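Operator note (shift B, R.M.): manual run for Lipid/polyisoprenoid-binding YceI-like domain-containing protein requested after the automated queue skipped it. Running by hand, logging everything below so the morning shift can see what happened. Input copied straight from the record, untouched. If output looks odd, do not overwrite the archive copy; leave it for review.
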Amino acid sequence: MRIDVSSVDTGAASLNETLLGADFFDSANHPAITFRSTQMTLDGEHPTLSGDLSIKGVTRRVTLALGSFRCAADETFKADVCLAQASVTIRRSDFNMRKYAFLVGDEVRLTLALRAVKETPALHLARGDPAR
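Run finished. Output pasted below as returned.
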């Protein structure tokens, strides 16, 4: 997953500028936040998704708790599609974002809406991708 850092929009231009600056996301040098999953665990009522979260040039292993997890066949994609809400609490200091601790706590909860499509050769052909 890739999130364009410049998509931050708080509704206040001056706050957006601060968040995109070197003290927070440093979007000039680190334009994206990425998450690459490495393992999914379906443990009854508490599924999780583990992987590497990269923010501001720092990568840390995190485990996201999955809620509202469901999968179904999707005619648009001609494949199984899974939807979930994911959340994890991170420490800003782990990602070299220590400024303004008196305004923003070190612990920040991230909540994401995820959609995963099972890749198949037919899906790649439908999108015009080369065969894998």
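Quick read of the result: Residues 73 and 79 are 6 Å apart (CA to CA). The chain has a mean pLDDT of 88.
Leaving this for review. - R.M.
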